[in-house]
Each structure stands twice: as C-alpha cells, then as structure tokens.
C-alpha cells in the first residue's frame, strides 16, 4: 500500500479532530453515524461535514450509506493518526521509502531531524481475512465489527513488548524504540532476510547459532511460532537478527511442542535445501 505522507502536511487541527472522532466512534460502531462523529468532534458551525468530505477525498475514511450515513477509518487514516502521534512525541520527523511488505504488515524507513534512520512497522491484521469474513454473513450478523483496528493494535503491542523484553535478555533483536496504535518503531536492521542469501561463509556456524537461538528462547519460556528464513536477518558480517514477534507463545501453550518442532523444522529444511551443513550442534 502506498503511504503518501504529503497529505499529512496539509491536514489541519480540525482534520485530526474529526479523524480521531471517527476512531473513537469505531470502538462501538462498525460504521460510525455522521451525527456521532459530529458530536464527538464538536466543531463549530457544522464544520464536521466539510472536514469529512476532505478526509474522504484523501482516502483517510471510507463512506458507507448502505444502512445509514456513516464513516469508518481506512488503514491510511489509522496510519496517519499513529504517525502524527509519534511525530508529535518527537520520535521521528519524516517517513521514507517502503522497505518491506509482510503478510500482515508494511515496513517503512523513518528518520529524525538529525538523520537517524529507523524502521516503522504498521500492522495490518485482518487485511487477508477481511474478505473471508465478509463472505460469511451469518458470522457477521452476530458481530459488531471486524475489529481490525483492535487486532492490529494488539499485534503491535505484543510485538513491542516482546522486542523490548528479548532485547533486555540479550537476544539479537531490533531495539524497540516506541509504539502507537498499530505502529512499532524499531532500529533499522542492516542486512537481508536469510531467504535472499545464496551463500554463507560459515553455514555450519550460522545454522548452529540459529538453532541455539530457538533453544535459548524456549529456555526463557517462549516459542517464536514463525521462525523461518523470512524472519531472520543476516548482515555482511554474518551477524543474525531475529524479527517479527506478534505471534510468539509461551512454552505452556497447549500446542507448544508442535510450534517448537515446526520452528526447528523450518530452519532444518531451509538449510538442508540451500546450504551444505554438517551440524555438530544441538539438533
Ligand atoms: P510480517 O509480520 O508482515 O512478516 P516482518 O516483521 O517480518 O513483517 O517484516 C517484513 C519484512 O520487512 C522483513 O522480511 C524485512 O525484510 C523487513 N524488516 C522488518 N523489520 C525490519 C527492520 N527492523 N529493519 C530492516 N528491515 C526490516
Ligand atoms: Mg515476517
């Protein structure tokens, strides 16, 4: 998804007030009635309607008049709210190029005034399942909303907390910088996902290091659950960094053994396909 942050510069206080009002309305409305937005935003002279038209033009909200006249946030609208909050907090001042597209996220570079570059992960839960859910009308009838805002925010919260805790315990993970809504700011990892690497100086050593990482995680009570060549980054000095933690579970999870075995299996499979390894390690 394109993130045109130019628009962000042209948005004024009223725009953010109304955007925030739509967000607040979404806690108990799938589509927020115009009157509710207006009541929460509390702008003078019926200004809400004009502002909503402007937000709609910039695709920050979606208009739905199938049952009543109402609006909901788009992912872009939610992105803007998170970005604005983090910029106000002084975490970064500009958004740069997109550096990754995950299954359920978009990753961008962000920079501070003095040129420090970091990574911004915007969680996009429900992006994949949205259509699937939509087709199941029966299921929908009993639900108030798709709740993608909530799910994405929860994913960011979990990811940030794990990243922070793992960093404290000396695991090779990005530095967790800050978080807002569905957005996590972390240090930029140099290097590439392992999946892009065709050759390694020391495949045996890297394999052992990765395997002992899974084991050490388990010793700390955690299983990554998506431990594979896409979520392990490696730099030119063959230093590895593990990323992508929102789905981690505890070793006391009832499927813990299965998840652990699957993580190990993924790495084994990848290494045996791509590199010649003679592991003497823990496997
Ligand atoms: P998803 O949950 O969608 O798979 P990831 O966290 O795995 O998201 O990120 C997707 C891609 O973005 C990664 O494969 C990697 O290429 C890039 N990426 C993620 N985090 C960083 C980071 N901190 N520094 C550099 N690149 C990153
Ligand atoms: Mg990933």
UniProtKB/TrEMBL annotation:
Belongs to the protein kinase superfamily. RIO-type Ser/Thr kinase family. Its EC number is 2.7.11.1. Pfam families: RIO1, Rio2_N. Its cofactor is Mg(2+). Keywords: ATP-binding, Kinase, Magnesium, Metal-binding, Nucleotide-binding, Serine/threonine-protein kinase, Transferase. Signal peptide: none annotated. It comes from the Eukaryota. It comes from Platanthera guangdongensis. It is an enzyme of class 2 (transferase). Residues 64-281 form the RIO kinase domain. It catalyses: L-seryl-[protein] + ATP = O-phospho-L-seryl-[protein] + ADP + H(+); L-threonyl-[protein] + ATP = O-phospho-L-threonyl-[protein] + ADP + H(+). This is non-specific serine/threonine protein kinase.
């Amino acid at each position: 998804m394109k993130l045109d942050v130019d628009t962000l510069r042209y948005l004024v206080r009223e725009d953010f007030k109304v955007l925030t009002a739509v967000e607040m309305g979404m806690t108990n409305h799938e589509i927020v009635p115009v009157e509710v937005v207006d009541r929460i935003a509390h702008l003078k002279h019926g200004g809400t309607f004009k502002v909503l038209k402007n937000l709609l033009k910039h695709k920050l909200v979606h208009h739905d008049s199938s049952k009543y006249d109402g609006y909901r946030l788009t992912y872009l609208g939610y992105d803007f709210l998170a970005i604005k909050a983090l910029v106000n907090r002084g975490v970064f001042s500009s958004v740069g190029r997109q550096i990754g597209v995950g299954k359920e996220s978009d990753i961008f570079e962000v920079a501070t005034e003095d040129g420090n570059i970091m990574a911004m992960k915007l969680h996009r839960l429900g992006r994949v399942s949205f259509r699937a859910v939509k087709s199941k009308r029966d299921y929908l009838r009993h639900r108030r909303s798709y709740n993608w805002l909530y799910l994405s925010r929860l994913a960011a919260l979990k990811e940030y907390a794990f990243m922070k805790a793992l960093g404290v315990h000396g695991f090779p993970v990005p530095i967790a910088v800050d978080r807002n809504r569905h957005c996590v700011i972390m240090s930029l990892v140099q290097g590439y996902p392992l999946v892009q690497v065709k050759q390694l100086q020391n495949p045996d050593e890297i394999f052992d290091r990765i395997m002992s990482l899974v084991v050490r995680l388990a010793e700390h009570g955690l299983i990554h659950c998506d431990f594979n060549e896409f979520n392990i980054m490696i730099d030119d000095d063959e230093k590895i960094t593990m990323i992508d933690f929102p789905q981690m579970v505890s070793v006391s999870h009832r499927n813990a053994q299965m998840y652990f075995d699957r993580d190990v299996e993924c790495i084994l499979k990848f290494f045996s396909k791509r590199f010649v390894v003679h592991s003497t390690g823990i496997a």
